[in-house]
Design goal:
mainly alpha; single chain; 106 residues
Length: 106
């Protein structure tokens, strides 16, 4: 049942946002806190609609289990094709300013 999870997530977010709003900005406006409640209604409603359509977000525990089960991969720097030759230098890929022809001084 997605309701419990959605409500717990929203409650956590609402408490953090309300706390920061109260402590940092000393916000005592009731309208701000009603807006947080209305945002929760939208969040839970949208999440419930997605759940009704079959969407079920993975939990952090599931993501960690998948990562642990996956074999380690090579880093992106070493994953580049090791046998690929370096492309030939062109006008735009010169080896530096010393390779450019000197401008004629008048």
């Amino acid at each position: 049942m997605p309701w419990r999870r959605l409500l717990v997530e929203w409650l956590f977010i609402a408490v953090v946002v309300a706390s920061v709003s109260l402590v940092v900005s000393h916000n005592r406006d009731l309208g701000s806190y009603i807006t947080i409640l209305l945002g929760g209604v939208v969040y839970v409603g949208f999440g419930a609609g997605l759940a009704k359509l079959g969407y079920n977000r993975k939990t952090l525990r599931q993501l960690r289990a998948e990562t642990a089960a996956r074999p380690p991969t090579r880093s992106t720097a070493s994953a580049a094709a090791p046998g690929r030759p370096k492309p030939a230098p062109t006008k735009r890929t010169s080896t530096g300013p010393t390779q450019r022809p000197a401008k004629k001084h008048r």
